[in-house]
């Protein structure tokens, strides 16, 4: 449907057509990044799930490969569900995934490349002894799924976790294995949090407290912390927490129980779910992939013939300035898509005003911006607004003393459509400033069948830091990263007027008591090369093209 074709993105990963959901089994192998994903070969809604597969040399340009696994065995005939890759040695990769059996029981299965010398890993073989794990006794057959990447114990055994729940407590079971075929359950669980419900797509990995590099999943010892992430089936968000992992007991204890997994920090305060990290041994970084679903109607998805995107892969680091947050940042290769840029230096935005930024067409952009408020206003304003929350506020139109101010993206000239990405600074009764980072979708589209929530959260700002944001705009997705990626918001928006050449960017300041000075650099973004596989020669020429 050409009416809706502008919604397709230009540099985010998506299949040629149909439905996609969770990222699966990401890894780097023999020079190639591999990306697998939950895919419906038969339509643009969830169902008939199999594994799609694509490869890349830079995480930006992709070649679609044949389906990696289809639903063809009794133990996965009702769905080849999510799973993870483990690199056992330079020439050995294994994949563990959840299968939905002929009786819809969730079991874990093993698969491996038919030819480990093929860097494209095109053909996958399912282990003849599958399934390798059944739901433990006392666990509902529908509540046992999404095995993680395995990591090594000091006894050189491989260890995995699998998400589940008991009553309303979200939990993760722990298993040790030497051959990925037989498993020994550990006593108890790695961790559990009452009231959080089923934990989908659990993730577990170390982060360095000392260096700005990622760590192999098996790293343990001093100078690191472990992150546990769970995707909460009930509220559809990905939550993480830092803590200490005790290898002997196979348990993890959160640093701050009051912000434990599922009740504290989120990777993203918009749409971002079922995410998964992998360690990129080529660039010594940990990379996060997340599924970005649609927020229009199912009938619109069926009309356009596809649904869902993947986030731009994000590099993850521990933020040692706050000690409380991860930093998420688009992988550096994203910058290879930058074309011409425009700079705006110290633009004054007075209270209650809007300033257009002339960047030409504004549907594919990479924006970096810094904001400063009046010193005097910051000192003199008194506004006890401790209860502020983006989602229950009146959005970008509700004026406070020190906010909201920020950027309007995917706006048309008359601003009948606009998506504000903004800060709101409040001053507590203790005199301290607290900063919030929000995205307001309420005027993002004149269409009525789309989600118009206001998203956001608190963002930590260290003394003397400027407020800063990076925004990736790509037709129907806006990915925003505040303060170097401490707080992130991804939204899907469906403007009908602010499309193609009609899309614009503005600065706005709805604070009543302060000027805002904004400095920005805005790049036009090239489209990525994301094409189907034809044959080996085609691979060679594709790579040349993408370079
Ligand atoms: N999606 C998969 C499951 C997983 C869920 C099925 C999360 O394995 O728990 O498509 O989105």
Automatic annotation (TrEMBL):
Chief place of localization: other
Glycosyl hydrolase family 32 C-terminal domain residues: 333-524
The Glycosyl hydrolase family 32 N-terminal domain, residue ranges: 12-330
GO biological process: carbohydrate metabolic process
Keywords: Glycoprotein, Glycosidase, Hydrolase, Membrane, Transmembrane, Transmembrane helix, Vacuole, Zymogen
Gene Ontology MF annotations: beta-fructofuranosidase activity
GO (cellular component) term, any one: vacuolar lumen
Keyword Ribosomal protein: no
EC number of this enzyme: 3.2.1.26
Keyword Transmembrane: yes
Domain of life: Eukaryota
Subcellular location: Vacuole lumen
Pathways per UniProt: Glycan biosynthesis; sucrose metabolism
Family (UniProt): Belongs to the glycosyl hydrolase 32 family.
Protein name, UniProt field: beta-fructofuranosidase
Residue numbers of the full-length protein present here: 119 to 665 of 681
């Amino acid at each position: 449907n050409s009416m809706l074709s502008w919604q397709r993105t230009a540099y985010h990963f998506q299949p040629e057509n149909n439905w996609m959901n969770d990222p699966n089994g990401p890894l780097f192998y023999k020079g190639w990044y591999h990306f697998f994903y939950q895919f419906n070969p038969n339509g643009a809604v969830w169902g008939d799930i199999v594994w799609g597969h694509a490869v890349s040399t830079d995480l930006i340009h992709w070649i679609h490969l044949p389906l990696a696994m289809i639903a063809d065995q009794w133990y996965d005939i009702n769905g080849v569900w999510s799973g993870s890759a483990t690199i056992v040695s330079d020439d050995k990769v294994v994949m563990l995934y959840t299968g939905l059996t002929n009786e819809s029981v969730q079991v874990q299965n093993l698969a491996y490349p038919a030819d480990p010398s093929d860097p494209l890993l095109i053909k996958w073989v399912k282990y003849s002894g599958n399934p390798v794990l059944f739901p433990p006794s006392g666990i509902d057959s529908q509540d046992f799924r999404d095995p993680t990447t395995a990591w090594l114990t000091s006894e050189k055994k491989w260890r995995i976790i699998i998400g589940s729940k008991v009553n309303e407590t979200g939990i993760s079971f722990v298993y040790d294995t030497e051959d990925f075929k037989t498993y020994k359950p550990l006593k108890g669980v790695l961790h559990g949090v009452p009231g959080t419900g089923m934990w989908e797509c659990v993730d577990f990995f170390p982060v360095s407290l000392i260096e700005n590099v990622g760590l192999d999943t098996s790293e343990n010892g001093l100078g690191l912390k472990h992150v546990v992430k769970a995707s909460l089936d009930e509220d559809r968000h990905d939550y993480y927490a830092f803590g200490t992992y005790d290898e002997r007991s196979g348990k993890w204890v959160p640093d701050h129980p009051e912000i434990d997994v599922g009740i504290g920090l989120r990777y993203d305060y918009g749409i971002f779910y079922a995410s998964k990290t992998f360690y990129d041994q080529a660039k010594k970084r940990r990379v996060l992939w997340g599924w970005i679903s649609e927020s229009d109607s199912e009938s619109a998805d069926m009309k356009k013939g596809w649904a869902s995107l993947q986030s731009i892969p994000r590099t993850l680091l521990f933020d040692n300035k706050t000690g409380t947050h991860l930093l998420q940042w688009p992988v550096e290769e994203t910058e290879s898509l930058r074309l011409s840029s425009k700079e705006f230096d110290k633009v004054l935005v007075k209270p209650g005003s809007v300033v257009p930024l002339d960047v030409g067409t504004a549907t594919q952009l990479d924006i970096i911006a810094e904001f400063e408020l009046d010193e005097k206003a910051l000192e003199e304003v008194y506004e006890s607004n401790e209860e502020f929350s983006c989602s229950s506020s009146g959005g970008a139109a509700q004026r406070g003393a020190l906010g909201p101010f920020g950027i309007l993206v995917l706006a048309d000239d008359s601003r009948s459509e606009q998506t504000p990405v903004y800060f709101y600074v409040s001053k507590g009764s203790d005199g301290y400033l607290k900063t919030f980072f929000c995205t307001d979708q309420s005027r993002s589209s004149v269409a009525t069948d789309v989600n118009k929530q206001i998203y956001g959260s608190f963002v930590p700002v260290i003394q003397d830091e400027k407020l800063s944001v990076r925004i990736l705009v790509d037709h129907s997705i806006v990915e925003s990263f505040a303060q170097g990626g401490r707080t992130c918001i991804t939204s899907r928006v469906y403007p009908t007027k602010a499309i193609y050449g009609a899309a614009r960017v503005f600065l706005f300041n709805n604070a009543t008591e302060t000027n805002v000075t904004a400095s920005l650099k805005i790049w036009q973004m090239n489209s990525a090369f994301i094409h189907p596989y034809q044959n080996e020669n085609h691979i060679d020429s594709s790579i040349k093209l993408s370079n």
